[in-house]
Amino acid sequence: MALEAPPPPPPIQSKTKFQLKRRFTASAAGFLRRDSQQRAAHFPSSPFSVQKTSYRTPSPILAAAVKERKAGAVTESESKPVRIVALVGQGTLSPLKGTPWEEVMLHTAKRLKWVDEGYEMLVFTDDICQSGNENAVNFMTELRRADILVIVSVTNQDSVNWIQTKSENVGNIICFDSSPNLSNKLGGSYIHKETKGNIFGKIFDTSQSKDSESVEVVQTVSQAWDRHNTDDIRFCLLVIINAYIRPVPILKNLRSKGLSTLSCMVKNCGPQILNCLLDPNCRKALQCLNQCSPVDQVCNYRCIASYESPNLEAFSLCVLQKNNCLGLDAKIPDKPYVPPMVKFQGKDLCHETAEDLFVGWLGSLNWSWRVVAGQNPAYDQFPCQYQLFYRGKARGSFWYEPVFQVRTLEGKMVWRRRKYRVKRSKIPGTFNFSVLDNGVISNEFWTVVDVPDDLSWGLFYYSGAARAAGQCYTGAVLVSPDGAYPNDMHKGRLAAALEKCGIKEWELYTVNNSSCLNPPLGIPEGSSLHSVIQVKNQTVISMVGLADA
């Protein structure tokens, strides 16, 4: 974007594009927050300070209500719409698989509605600046009442000049990948900058900045934008709304709890803290998390997966799950509503059949499904993902165990495995999942969106929350027996299934299934598989009761 705060030392990044707090994520990042004066630094998680270091990341807890000093400005009726106007360069392409920016921003407008129906974003292309037609009049009408103007990939000088003369009364202007001649404004104040090199080289002159909160807002938005995914594009806008328009409830966990957090940790979890700091892997995990932005879930979960250990789990279990020292909370998102499929092989879907669809190819193959792609980049960065679904020994029990590879931050390839308890929900094809992941419980709601009669592929949607970590998330996984993408014959059906989830195909992250040697598969002895569907010799025969039809 055209806004950048003075960059900190580069955080640890994954080599892929970038929510998995489908697993434990960002909260631990603050447990080891330090500064060069060895004093406790405020952070959304905690002010816990351990040792000297020369690096300290600015807290993106930013103006999570901007120290509440703007409380008077945000206490207006929250029923008033937040109006956003987006102006994108005509014909410009995004880094999201070359999708036009106009389409990306129109999709973002839809996704904003899932957070709050009062968020209204209209999208225009910059060719409107040279036209005098009705659309240009509509643009000016909307611009005059806009709370935020978002400018994306606008470099045409005529458009730039036109924007400069027409946008003076907009309180918040933010420019991404655009001309360096365009100015950025937050809370009614222009952000001073100087230009170095190309249009991506802008940096902030923080000495002239009105307040540090604006710099923190900018840094958080800059880092999120650079991850180039639809979750973070939406997050950028929510941060601006939260800081300068009105509070955004799902960002409430960005507020620091101060000394109460440290007191809770020391009072309740002293041994766990000490054991973690004495354990090289646990200590590395905290140090690694310390270098991640709390909202960069790719970075955070890669730290967890790289250095997970019993001491890290005990630390998180005590600080987060048992004592909630950070005072966090989160609820499973209820939007978008995704309906389950209703029929399989010509019959109404029942709970038993839906479970069998999860079990998939297990028995004929050594796994239920392999993940082809997903819409949750924090998890879909990991290669070689296998799904194991099976019925347990206990009556009515059902389990899910994902197995996946992680290239650790030290360059090693390791296998990881999780275990979810699965319970039927009210409607066939919907399920409640729960998992203890590195000391934090995640609860998720899964939906079987579509599976063809031949089990050639499947699409499963999920939404979840880790309350103790203050994280909520949504996502989807596209699966097949061999990890290969469905062929063109299924293109229309797959697009329709994704549309039910509010997902565009260009949002999916392809899982690397190219080198998956010796995965630690297998299920517990005494487990059972299919109840209704018959799968033999890698072929779906039929449902029981249909074989003779």
From TrEMBL:
Pfam families: VDE (PF07137). Residues 263-513 form the VDE lipocalin domain. One of its GO terms (biological process) is xanthophyll cycle. It comes from the Eukaryota. GO terms for molecular function: violaxanthin de-epoxidase activity. This is VDE lipocalin domain-containing protein.
